[in-house]
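As a warm-up, study this chain.
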Amino acid sequence: MRFPIEEVRAAYPALSDGYAYLDGAAGTQTPTPVIEAIARAYREGIGNVGGAFPASGRSDAIVAEARRAVADLVGGDPRGVILGPNMTTLTYRLSRALVGPGDEVVLSRLDHDANVRPWVQTGATIRWAEVDTVTGELPVEQYGELIGPRTKLVAVTAASNVLGTRPDVAAITDLAHRAGALTYVDGVHATAHGPVDVRELGADFYATSAYKWSGPHIGAVIADPALLETVRPDKLASSSDEVPERFEWGTSAFADLAGVAAAVDHLAGLVEASGTRRERLLASMAAAEAHELALFDLLIEGLQTLPHVTLYGKPARRTATAYFTVAGRTPREVAEHLAGLGVNVWNGHNYAWELTGALGIRETGSAVRAGLVHYNDASDVERLLEGVRSIPRSRP
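Now compare it with the structure written out below.
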């Protein structure tokens, strides 16, 4: 299926500023339908939910549609979609309700710190899954030794936000479930880069953030509503005890939730496909992934030809995310040089705190991250490669 990159790029007004946006792993740009949906919600008038007047009813409808949209995106149940400000905040909330001192939790050093520190800080006993620092893989075999009868929960990423590694999540969660443990899967990076099915992954809890897939700054955690009924988080005595509302603290950003639904609709229309929104999403996200990985082949091949570039990780299955250093230059200097040429990339640990420590680069500025998303094209890749080639080998 041809990926209509020109039409896709035309939907993103920010791309007209002349920069090559290779910073998508930290957050994507926003398409016009999402911008308009948020503005429309404000123009039409919204109120808090549960009221007797029309503006409140509009907010009720916005929230319900946001839950349906997120459920369609990841293959979940809208009745189990918890909405909040971001994945980190929601994970902190849920971690306190799920585990505590005396429990045992298995974490991985591949993960973003948002799926590490909240669990560490519960006081639970932590067991670590290690990363192969040469390949960037997270070997499944070690989980057979790490998971045991005392394991309460296994937290693992569906894709590394710096190396792009896609571990075998289904195999890991199967081991966890055999031991009677729950699974918490960080899908923040993975969701933007291909089709997702939370049931196939075996995720009891699946976290995602809309700003990584063309939406506003809204987070979500998806779970079986029957499972959520068994979890009792701290909450105000006066707030709803219904699921999933019992996990949603304070007043929601209703206009942004309208943007969440619009972002999912936008993704469902990246390519021409028929069927339900879920079916169209599967087709569009598969096409987007193929487009990204084709560009990524060009990016990696180009970087590999440069003798002053060191690439980190070479996993068998990955997202289109490159992490590299340039000899004689700090990652920040590389990012600044590229920014001067109109190329946006990130530098630093990017919250992959444990991973950059394991790689031995955290104390020296970590590395440069260039991430492709569905609106990037071949010219973006060439501009990055040309920019890296032009970096002086030594300081003047």
